[in-house]
Specification:
three-stranded antiparallel sheet, alpha+beta, 5 helices, 123 residues, single chain, Arc Repressor Mutant, subunit A
Length: 123
């Protein structure tokens, strides 16, 4: 997995050198329908055309099914910027995206009770 701090747009001392919207050319909407829980995975097809280093980093994080939120966190980019990057990769066939699969009941009562018990113990 590539290190998110590598690359010309970040500096250890100064932080982000290029604004996130510059990374995606000022675009604000992805072309593919992605949400934070969408799972993306590399297809093994090399992207045609020249994509930026951010696209290469995002693609490197897609070896297995990975959520958009997780990729955004690794890249240290806002979710909308990550969605645009990933939709570019979907459009060129480098990654596939699918909505998350939920069981019949998306909330498991025993899990919610365990979380609530843990929160109560912390207070």
């Amino acid at each position: 997995m590539p290190a998110p701090m590598d690359g010309p747009w970040l500096d250890d001392a100064a932080g982000r050198l290029i604004r996130p919207y510059s990374v995606i050319g000022g675009r604000t909407r992805p072309t593919a329908a992605l949400d934070l829980l969408s799972l993306v995975m590399a297809t093994g097809t090399a992207p045609q055309g020249s994509l930026g280093p951010e696209h290469a980093l995002a693609l490197g994080l897609c070896d297995g099914p990975t959520s958009v939120a997780e990729i955004a966190a690794h890249l240290r980019l806002p979710a909308v910027v990550t969605k645009v990057l990933l939709s570019d990769l979907v459009d060129c066939g480098a990654v596939t995206a699918r909505a998350p699969r939920f069981q019949e009941s998306p909330t498991d009562r025993s899990l919610l009770e365990a979380v609530l018990d843990g929160l109560r113990r912390r207070l």
